[in-house]
Amino acid sequence: MLSRLTRPQVLAVCAAPAVALLATAVFAPLPFSVAQPGLTADVLGENKGAQVITISGAPVRETSGQLRMTTIEATSPDTRVGLADVIDSWFRTDQAVMPRESVYPSGDTVREIERYNRKQMKESQDEATRAALGYLKREDEDIEVDLELADVGGPSAGLLFSLGIVDKLDGDGDGGDLTGGRVVAGTGTIAADGTVGAVGGVPLKTQAAERDGATVFLVPEAECSDARVELPEGLRLIPVTTLEGAVDALVSLEKGTGKVPSC
């Protein structure tokens, strides 16, 4: 003879699968990385005891001010990120939850990802050198550029590398510095033809820039709206699409002439 379940018993039976699913969601790893503002480095100076930009084969200017490339610091590819981590980061302005594939190549080991990021950095450095020398119309000269930046991978420092090379070789073209003595920060990939590309993680990079003293931030134009999210007070955004445009904007800002673009 079948017995009839009481209402509390029915609710308990029905709730059991939901509780199990919730427990799985809470403790199961999710395909995300948690990121926060990372280090910045002045490409005109030294980083960890090594000169970032070393140029031979041409006179190099003494520069003032800083050009700081910016980074984000993300949880490693093998870190388990759970629902609690996602919820905690959601309510914080100094952290962001990003799809893991937007931070790291998917399906690779940690060692393979590190190798990939180093390869991207080397390619970015080569492109930055070609872009800078091409902009200055000095690509046919016997100028050698060595770029050294420890513990940083990926292509997002390309724009700042190019600007650093331009500043060291030519400044503003009229004896002054591109920075005008300011702390200028930024981010963006660079192609050999001088095209600036988007990078991601911009709101965290603006926080890193402001933390390390920047008052101006160069951002790929396509990421203006992202850059305005949680923008630190006192940090001026300048959108750029090309190396030439970035140089022109900095010169206009330095000399107080011309229109400086804004987001």
What's the helix and strand layout?
Elements (H helix, E strand, L loop, with lengths): L6 H21 L4 E11 L3 E2 L2 E2 L1 E4 L9 E9 L8 H8 L5 E4 H4 L6 H26 L8 E4 L10 H12 L13 E4 L2 E2 L5 E2 L4 H10 L4 E5 L3 H4 L8 E5 L2 H13 L8
Architecture overview:
The protein is α/β, with parallel strands linked by helices and 263 residues long. It has a domain at 39-72 and 106-255: 2-Layer Sandwich (Ribosomal Protein S5, domain 2), CATH 3.30.230. Helix content is 37%, strand content 21%. It is built from 8 helices and 12 strands. The protein has helices at 7-27, 83-90, 100-103, 110-135, 158-169, 202-211, 224-227, 243-255, and strands spanning 32-42, 46-47, 50-51, 53-56, 66-74, 96-99, 144-147, 183-186, 189-190, 196-197, 216-220, 236-240. The strands form 4 sheets. The protein has a 6-stranded mixed beta sheet. 37% of the residues are buried.
Q: What is the spatial order of strands in the main beta sheet?
A: 6-1-5-8-11-12
Strand content: 15-25%
Number of helices: 8
Secondary structure: helix percent: 25-40%
**In terms of per-residue confidence, which ranges show pLDDT below 50 for 5 or more consecutive residues?**
1-28
The CATH topology of the domain at 39-72 and 106-255 comes to: Ribosomal Protein S5, domain 2
CATH class of the domain at 39-72 and 106-255: Alpha Beta
N- to C-terminal distance: 75 Å
Structural class: alpha/beta
Described by strand count, sense and barrel closure, the largest sheet is: 6 strands, mixed
Strand element count: 12
User: Averaging pLDDT over every residue, what do you get?
Assistant: 84
What's the CATH architecture of the domain at 39-72 and 106-255?
2-Layer Sandwich
Rg from alpha-carbon coordinates: 24 Å
Q: Give the H and E element order.
A: HEEEEEHEHHEHEEEHEHEH
Shape descriptor reads globular
